[in-house]
Design brief:
The protein has 382 residues and is an alpha/beta fold. Helices cover 30% and strands 27% of the residues. The protein has two domains: 127 residues, Rossmann fold, CATH 3.40.50; 236 residues, 2-Layer Sandwich (Dihydrodipicolinate Reductase, domain 2), CATH 3.30.360. The structure holds nicotinamide-adenine-dinucleotide.
C-alpha cells in the first residue's frame, strides 16, 4: 500500500485537528493510501510538546526549514496566521513538497495569485482547506442541484456564522488584527467555506453589493491593557450569479458576531420545482422541498453512510466537525494519488483565487457603497 508522510507547519488549533484525523486513519475502510504524521513545526514550545504524544512523529522543531529538508516528508499542511501564508506556502512548494494550505490561501488577492502561479510552475499538488462540504448534508445538496430536480433555480443562500467574538472581554488574538488576518477580515476567515460549494457548482458572483461591519473595535490585550480590533466582524454579500440564461440572486453571509451561532455552516437552494437546504445547526437533517398537491418541506435524517469515504462508524451515527475534517484530508490524499474518482474534491487553487476576487470586489463595494462587477482577472484591484 502507498504511504504518504505528512508534515505540519503551525501546530495550533487546526494543526492538532489534522493530527487527530491522521492518527485515526485506520477508521477509513479500504482506503488505498496510508498516512503518517512525521514532522511538526511551531514556534511555541507548549504547542510542540502536545505532539510528543503522537507516536508517528519523528521530528518536532521550531525551524520550518528543518521540516522542509526532512527527506521523508511528502506533503505539508500549513496552518499559520494569514500574513504568513504566502511566504510559507511558496517555500513548501520550492522545497519540492505538495501542499494543503489553510484558507484564505494568502492574506490577499496578490498573495493568492502568487501561490497559484508557483503551484502551477512547479507542478505541485496543491489544495486549500474547507471541510464542511464533506458532510453528508452538503453532499446531498450538491446531488440535488446536479440532478436538475430543482427546476429553474430561483435563489441561493449560503453562510457561515460564529459567535466567537460576541464576548467583548475575550482577549484579542491575531484573527482580530488586519496586519495578521488581512484587510478582508471575516471574509478571509469564513468566506472560502461559504464559496466552496457555489464555486464548484459554477456559481461565480458576477456582481455584488457588500455590507461589512466592525462591531467590537477594542478588546483586552491580554496584558492588562486594551488593543484595537480593526478587522471586519461581519459581512453580507448580495451577489448575482448566472445560471443558464438566468441571473440569480445569491446571498453570502460570513459572521463572527452572530448571536446564538457557534459554528453554523448552511446552504439553501430554491428552484421552481424543488428546493434543498442543510445547516450544521441540525447536523443530520436534510430538507427537501416538493410541490405537488401541497407544498412540502420534508426532513431526511442522514448519517455516516452519506460520507464520501466509508469508515468503520455505523451508517446511522451522526458525523461532526472532526469527521468532516478527516473526510477532507482523505479527499486530498485520494485526489493526490489519483483515486478520488467521482467524489467531491478539496478547494482548488483557482477557486481560492476566485474567492479573493469576490472579497476584493466586496471591499470596493463597501468603500464606495456601489454595486461592483467581479472581474476574475489580475487587473482587478481594490
Ligand atoms: N478549516 C477550518 O475550519 C479552520 C478553522 C480555524 C482556522 N483555520 C485556518 O487555519 C490557519 C491557522 O489558524 P489556527 O486557528 O490554527 O491558528 P492558531 O493561532 O491556533 O495556530 C497557529 C499556530 O501557528 C504557530 N506559528 C505562528 N507563527 C509561526 C511561524 N512563523 N512558524 C511556525 N509556527 C508559527 C503559532 O504558535 C500557533 O500554534 C489560518 O489560516 C486559519 O484561517 C481554518
Amino acid at each position: 500500500m502507498k504511504k504518504v508522510n505528512i508534515g505540519i507547519i503551525g501546530g495550533g488549533l487546526m494543526g492538532k485537528e489534522a493530527a487527530s484525523a491522521f492518527g485515526r486513519w485506520f477508521a477509513l475502510n479500504d482506503f488505498p493510501v496510508q498516512v503518517a504524521l512525521t514532522a511538526v513545526c511551531d514556534l511555541n514550545p507548549e504547542v510542540l510538546s502536545w505532539y510528543e504524544a503522537v507516536p508517528s512523529v519523528e521530528l518536532i522543531t521550531t525551524d520550518y526549514k528543518e521540516l522542509l529538508a526532512h527527506p521523508s516528508v511528502d506533503v505539508v499542511y500549513v496552518a499559520l496566521p494569514h500574513n504568513l501564508h504566502q511566504k510559507y506556502y511558496l517555500e513548501v512548494l520550492e522545497a519540492g513538497k505538495d501542499l494543503l494550505g489553510e484558507k484564505p490561501f494568502g492574506i490577499d488577492l496578490q498573495a493568492a495569485l502568487e501561490i497559484k502561479e508557483a503551484a502551477d510552475r512547479l507542478g505541485r499538488f496543491v489544495r486549500c482547506s474547507s471541510e464542511m462540504p464533506f458532510l453528508p448534508g452538503p453532499q446531498r445538496v450538491i446531488e440535488e442541484v446536479i440532478s436538475g430536480r430543482l427546476g429553474q433555480i430561483i435563489e441561493i443562500k449560503a453562510g457561515f456564522l460564529h459567535s466567537s467574538d460576541l464576548d467583548p472581554n475575550k482577549p484579542i488574538n491575531w484573527k482580530r488584527q488586519t496586519q495578521f488576518c488581512g484587510e478582508i477580515g471575516v471574509m478571509g476567515d469564513l468566506g472560502m467555506h461559504v464559496l466552496h460549494v457555489p464555486l464548484r457548482l459554477g456559481w461565480k458572483p458576477k456582481r455584488l453589493y457588500a455590507q461589512l461591519q466592525k462591531i467590537i473595535t477594542e478588546r483586552p490585550d491580554g496584558k492588562g491593557g486594551r488593543a484595537v480590533c480593526d478587522t471586519w466582524n461581519n459581512a453580507i454579500l448580495n451577489t448575482q450569479v448566472e445560471i443558464g440564461a438566468e441571473e440569480v440572486p445569491m446571498t453570502l453571509e460570513m459572521k463572527r458576531i452572530a448571536p446564538g451561532e457557534t459554528n453554523t455552516w448552511y446552504i439553501e437552494v430554491l428552484g421552481t420545482k424543488g428546493g434543498v437546504k442543510y445547516s450544521t445547526k441540525d447536523t443530520k437533517a436534510l430538507w427537501t422541498f416538493s410541490c405537488e398537491k401541497e407544498q412540502l418541506w420534508q426532513r431526511t435524517d442522514l448519517g455516516f453512510k452519506g460520507m464520501p469515504f466509508s469508515t468503520i462508524t455505523g451508517g446511522i451515527f451522526e458525523p461532526g466537525f472532526p469527521d468532516c475534517f478527516m473526510q477532507m484530508l482523505a479527499a486530498y490524499v485520494a485526489e493526490r494519488a489519483g483515486v478520488l474518482n467521482d467524489r467531491f474534491g478539496c478547494v482548488m487553487p483557482q477557486e481560492a483565487v476566485d474567492s479573493h476576487y469576490v472579497f476584493n470586489a466586496a471591499l470596493k463595494s463597501f468603500a464606495k457603497h456601489t454595486v461592483e462587477n467581479v472581474y476574475y482577472h489580475q487587473n482587478q484591484t481594490v
